[in-house]
Each structure stands twice: as C-alpha cells, then as structure tokens.
C-alpha cells in the first residue's frame, strides 16, 4: 500500500449501526464515527486486503440505510489520506482516513445508502466505484414514499403523488419544461 501513485477510483461505504444514532443526534460527530477506525482486512485475516486504502477517494457514512455524511479523502500535512491506528476497542491495526466534508457529494446526505447491508450482515464496510457516485451515473432507489435518483451531487425525488423534489448544491440551475402529455 503506497500513497504515491494510487488511482483514487473507489468509495468506502461504511455502516455504523452502533454509533449512527450518535451522528443523527449530533452531526458534528460524523468525522469521528465514519472516518475510522476500519480494518482493511476481511474477517480475521491480516494479510489479504478487503480494500486498498490508497484507492479510496471518498467515504460515505450510513445508518439504517440512509447516508448521513460524505467525506472526501484529503491528504494530511505529510501527504497521506489515511494512517494506521491501534484501536483501543478492536484487536489489530485499523485505518483512519483523513477527510473533509464533501462539497461534490453533499446532495447524497439524506439519500439512500449507495450500498446495502442485509439484516444480520456484520461486516461494516463495502466498496463501490467512484463512477457509481459521479455525475451521469444514476443511482435509483425505491423508497416508501416514491423513487429517488442520485445524479452526482443532485438528488431527484418523485413521491407517490407525482410531485418532484430536486436537491442540488448552491449555485446550480434547474430548468423545468412542461409538456401537454397528461399522466
């Protein structure tokens, strides 16, 4: 794992079923909860990586199937986007990412998680490609109230009554065109 020439083309999606409520109650705790401490190994392995931390461009923090926070992996003063830590709560070495709240993916906050965990699934991290989250690649999710589509930093929600809600970063423009076609 070498920081120097890594292509950052993956997103670490982390599920925090135990500490997610802490972020709901106090969003200022999101970085502490979601940026680490994560094992890069699957299960009890200590040699076979489940993900390469050098390839992580962003970290998406999830709780109960919803995105609570998104962070861009950013270099620290030494140029590293992550560091090894010995966690007091878990055996073995863990990774803590250096991150900042993502402006690029800010509209993802509140949307459905880009990865899903089945009931009873214990492993808290999943990796998706960065292209799954960047503009032009739509992530469509059925929700209890309708459908939600995520296009880069924009979230479009269609409720069961046919109403549309568009959430996008400040400074963006939305154009609405109507047709004569009736549903």
Distinctive features:
mainly beta; five-stranded mixed beta sheet; about 5% helix; four-stranded antiparallel beta sheet
Question: What this model shows, in words?
Answer:
Strand 9 and strand 10 form a beta hairpin. The mean pLDDT is 84. This protein has 183 residues and is mainly beta. The radius of gyration is 18 Å and the shape is globular. The strands form three sheets. Strands 7-4-3-1-8 form a five-stranded mixed sheet. 28% of the residues are buried. It has a domain at 10-132. It contains two helices and twelve strands; from the N terminus they run E-H-H-E-E-E-E-E-E-E-E-E-E-E. 6% of the residues lie in helices and 36% in strands.
């Amino acid at each position: 794992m070498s920081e120097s020439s890594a292509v950052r083309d993956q997103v670490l999606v982390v599920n925090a079923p135990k500490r997610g409520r802490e972020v709901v109650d106090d969003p200022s705790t999101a970085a502490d909860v979601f940026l680490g401490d994560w094992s890069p190994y699957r299960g009890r392995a200590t040699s076979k990586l489940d993900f390469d931390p050098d390839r992580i461009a962003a970290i998406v923090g999830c709780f109960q199937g919803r995105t609570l926070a998104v962070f861009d992996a950013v270099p620290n003063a030494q140029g590293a986007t992550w560091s090894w830590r010995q966690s007091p709560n878990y055996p073995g070495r863990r990774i803590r990412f250096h991150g900042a709240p993502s402006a690029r993916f800010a509209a993802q906050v509140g949307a459905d998680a880009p990865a899903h965990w089945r009931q009873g699934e214990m492993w808290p991290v999943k990796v998706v490609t960065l292209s799954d989250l960047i503009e032009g690649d739509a992530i469509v999710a059925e929700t209890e109230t309708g459908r939600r589509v995520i296009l880069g930093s924009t979230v479009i929600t269609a409720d069961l009554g046919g109403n549309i809600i568009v959430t996008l970063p400040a400074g963006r423009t939305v154009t609405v065109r109507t047709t004569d076609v009736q549903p």
